[in-house]
Amino acid sequence: MSRGVSRITLQDVAREAGVSLATADRVLNGRAGVRGVTAERVRDAVARLGYRPNLAAARLARGETYRFCFVLPVGTNVFMRLLAEQVSNTASWLAANNAYIDTLRVDVFAPETLASALEGLVGHYDGIAVVALDHPRVRAAIDDLTSAGVAVVTLVSDVPSSHRLHYVGIDNIAAGRTAATLLGRFAGGRRGTVGLIVGTPALRDHAERQFGFTQVLAGEYPALKVLPVEESLDEDERTEAIVARMLRDAPDLVGLYNAGAGNRGIAAAISAANRADDLIFIGHDLTDDTRRFLLRGVMDAVINQDAGHQSRSAARVLLAHCAGEPLLNEQERIRIDIFVRDNLP
User: Fold this and answer.
1) Residue 323 Cα to chain centre, angstroms
2) Any idea where the HTH lacI-type domain is (predicted)?
């Protein structure tokens, strides 16, 4: 009976190839000093035995350690709190791989503050994951980090014109288009106005959601007219005041799309106006709050992104880059989930 692949070691490969352990290690790590015919024997043994190197063990054996920093927003954004919890969980997994995570909380709505925080990380970390603002100062700070040899991954919100290594997050244009399709279909041919709220258009994810939403609504649901975009800074008090004003000033309001946070404020305003039965409300991120709003019929659909997947993906991307290891790109694609009351997990 053949041995399971998981039990095959480098010693088994060396024995099968008739070489020393040091020679087998040289071949597998591409180091010079091994004759071609000998290297070929080692590679044949690897293929026959189905050997797969334990990359984490190899890093530990070489004494390689990496330190990463996750730069996350301050504030009351519920999704960002979930993301911070998942980063903490990811740190436990990463420690077993000889890599460590620090978390820095910053006001990402303030470009100067965020840029200064990023500039202060040069020379202290091997990699950075940042919920980024698409602003010239922030782009310059990211580029300075990459020039200094620090890998930078943008998380949730991208800065595509920067020299960042990778973006970890959903396709936000597609998310906005999805929100418009849901709202348009739920409207069932009604005519009227639609409210659109973003945290700030300076966050790329919010701006892209806005673009996708207005594109579909204008092209496919011309009976629904989008009101001027409102900016909430992801604060519940602001969203409540914005929606209360919309409900007062736009009697033909058919629905609302919130591209950012602040869903508690919106739900409070809808409930206070007794509009839950006829007003369509589409928002983002499945949390304890949005789950409750769906169950109570205040909210109609939630477009979700998995905070745990994003945290783990950012860590995997940084670790693979720093260690020179392969990355499975398909594993790092963050999908869009749609939840209504009937399919809540």
Assistant:
1) 22
2) 8-62
Distances (CA, A) of 277 to 8, 266, 270, 280, 296: 62, 14, 10, 8, 10
What token pair was written down for 30? 């591409």
- Give the pair of three-digit tokens for residue 151: 């890998």
- Per-residue pLDDT tens for 94-129? 888 889 999 999 998 899 999 999 999 999 999 999
For 172-304, CATH gives 3.40.50.2300
Q: What is the pLDDT of residues 276-316, one digit of tens each?
A: 999 999 999 999 999 999 999 999 999 999 999 999 999 99
**Nearest to residue 179, comparing CAs of 66, 257, 116?**
257
Helix or strand run (H / E) with residue 339: strand 337-339
> In CATH, which of 3.40.50.2300, 2.40.30.40, 3.20.20.70, 3.40.190.10 is domain 66-170+307-334?
3.40.50.2300
Domain boundaries 5-53, corresponding CATH code: 1.10.260.40
Helices (H), the chain: 10-17, 21-28, 36-49, 55-62, 78-95, 111-119, 136-147, 172-187, 204-220, 236-249, 263-272, 288-296, 307-323
Burial of 171 (0-12, 13-18, 19+ CB in 10 A): middle
Type and span of the H or E element at 317 = helix 307-323
Place of tokens 């091994």: 34
Q: What is the pLDDT of residues 111-120, one digit of tens each?
A: 999 999 999 9
> Could you give the CA distance from residue 196 to residue 279 in angstroms, rounded to a whole number?
13
Tokens standing for residue 326: 């392969």
d(CA 275, CA 288): 21
| pLDDT grade for 61, boundaries at 50, 70 and 90 | low
Strands 337-339 and 301-304: antiparallel
Sequential DSSP letters for 74-115: -S--HHHHHHHHHHHHHHHHHHTTTEEEEEEEE-TT-HHHHH
Q: What is the pLDDT of residues 184-193, one digit of tens each?
A: 999 999 999 9
